[in-house]
Task: structure prediction
Amino acid sequence: MPDLGLDADARGVLPSQVLERAISLGIIDAGTNTVPADNIQPASIDLRLGDVAYRIRCSFLADRQAVEAKVKDYVIDELDLRREGSVLETNRPYLIPLVEELKLPPGIHGKANPKSSTGRADVFTRVITDYSYRFDEIAAGYQGRLYLEVVPLSFTIKVRQGLALNQLRLSAGDGGLADDELRRLHDVEPIMFREARPATGDEPAIPGGRCLSLDLHGGDDGRVGYRAKDNAPLLELGRTDWYRPEEFWEPVHREDGDRIALAPERFYLLLSEESVRIPPGFAAEMTAYDPTSGELRTHYAGFFDPGFGYEPSGRFFGSRAALEVRAHDVPFVIEHGQRVCRLTFERMAEPPGVLYGEGIGSSYQRQENMLGKHFRREQASPDSAA
Result:
């Protein structure tokens, strides 16, 4: 097996320089394609769409079969993603073989998540692998292709070959932090702030992570977020800083008492009350909080790279997290400070060569606007849509 150059006892997420080694050794294999340097993030690699998308009648897991064999029973149509790409309709599942393949060593496993901009556009994605009964988790030693299920939920989208909608994080062993390790880390390198002061109190409130809660106070105008519009124009995901927000989003304003009522099955973008700070030796993932805490889904995108919200000189104290929220079945009231998800933390297998931030073109450092990078940085229409 190729040697990634890790210490024998290394545990945790592989940083960018180790991912580069993995590419050069063929552990991450793009065939005749070169992996662009910009696709290698501090603790993950962007995965690119291949040249075809299969419109399928239902989602599935491979379980005891190869994906290519099992999908044949579900294909309705085949779309060409070369050149100008193709349009993917809302609420229809598509399966897209990815450019990158894996030849993982026995001790290396992976996890996939949508890119933040994908989640903010309400595009649901998850990776499927051969002979697996789980989405987004790649078993240690996996050898084979990767396939991405894509379901646009709020907007009809256009995608093309080479576009990255999701990302892969590789890890050696178990690098997760236990509660006592997390408390010690927060004492030395605060990982969560409220109003520029380290968060205190009953954090972590649940085992294995720290809670994130909602900011439903907002600014002086009372706006706390956005709700996706019905019947919006086509959203081409290869465009950046291109679309007028008011064509796709309506602003959401708080009610008296700093709360809002979510309409069922509508997609909302909100911000966390806390600011998050990921020190260089660690990475984090946003995970579900507690399914019994309300009939709502509170995130789609999940990875937080080392350096997110981090500024050692103290010029700023963390970056707030964008929260993608959808209520199910019935209207659901959420309130300022309500806990909706948690961050779990892992150590890095070795110190990262680069950190999240403006120096590598990161899009969401110090964010105060939760809209994704596809939209122009301007105020949306002032009309309320609580």
Notes: The two ends are 56 Å apart (CA to CA).
